[in-house]
Amino acid sequence: xxxxxxxxxxxxxxxxxxxxxxxxxxxxxxxxxxxxxxxxxxxxxxxxxxxxxxxxxxxxxxxxxxxxxxxxxxxxxxxxxxxxxxxxxxxxxxxxxxxxxxxxxxxxxxxxxxxxxxxxxxxxxxxxxxxxxxxxxxxxxxxxxxxxxxxxxxxxxxxxxxxxxxxxxxxxxxxxxxxxxxxxxxxxxxxxxxxxxxxxxxxxxxxxxxxxxxxxxxxxxxxxxxxxxxxxxxxxxxxxxxxxxxxxxxxxxxxxxxxxxxxxxxxxx
Length: 269
Ligand SMILES: CC(C)(COP(=O)(O)OP(=O)(O)OC[C@H]1O[C@@H](n2cnc3c(N)ncnc32)[C@H](O)[C@@H]1OP(=O)(O)O)[C@@H](O)C(=O)NCCC(=O)NCCS
Ligand SMILES: [Zn+2]
What we know:
Elements: H1 2-9, H2 20-26, E1 36-38, E2 45-47, H3 51-66, E3 68-69, E4 76-78, H4 93-101, E5 106-110, H5 116-133, H6 141-144, E6 153-160, E7 163-172, E8 178-182, E9 188-189, E10 198-205, H7 214-225, E11 237-239, H8 244-254, E12 256-257, E13 263-268
Parallel strand pairs: 10-11
Antiparallel strand pairs: 1-2, 3-7, 4-5, 5-6, 6-7, 7-10, 8-9, 8-13, 12-13
Bound molecules: coenzyme A and zinc ion.
């Protein structure tokens, strides 16, 4: 049962369909064999003989791999400079130069509070993101204004070929939340509490568009456009419990080499 539970926790649960997991577990054939299957591409588990589950999988699969369909008027476009600098130690600066020039059919937009259409579309994406990260679904107030009167952050979406291919949500941090994380063993340095400015709450790129520099561009958009007219230094941007791939992105984007020889990632609690 344990493995079923962990599979179920990865399942996409469309709004208002909270009994979905139970229905999955109930599907067994006459011989008792489970008819629940796991898609190898999007990793969703679903019942192969449920019309509702098949439709849910179809929708999740498409969003997870290709992003969400995005209307032309949603979001306010923001610009980022073309050449995103790579750390001097990088061995792949050539590939980055190629990535930076590849902006055709793409734009980055900022999600405006009080614009229900773009907020709801972004919430659809956040559901996929949180599901992949096993992260809480209720941390959207700071960028959307939902159930919150003051905004403490922003969401930016990367739009490519009329699809939202990636998203970043960032929050302005109060003092005291910053920490350094040792990249090697993911331990937190307890003795120092650096004051970082911006917390990266979520960052995600749909599966078919990864490894093309999109997350890096979203980081740059957040760095340059969250606090209007006041670009933030990369090293004041902190990560929240980075995933495996998030840790590698952080390593590349804004890690620091400490005098001890350890590589440190800016994080926040
Ligand atoms: C992490 C994630 C956002 C990266 O998106 P991306 O658009 O592929 O990232 P980029 O192309 O901008 O990567 C920039 C650099 O980060 C590093 N990097 C990013 N993802 C990596 C991965 N999976 N493995 C190794 N290195 C990676 C690389 O150095 C890369 O540069 P290079 O390709 O020139 O070597 C994406 O993999 C994702 O959505 N993962 C699932 C959600 C998640 O884990 N989010 C992070 C939460 S903290
Ligand atoms: Zn799938």
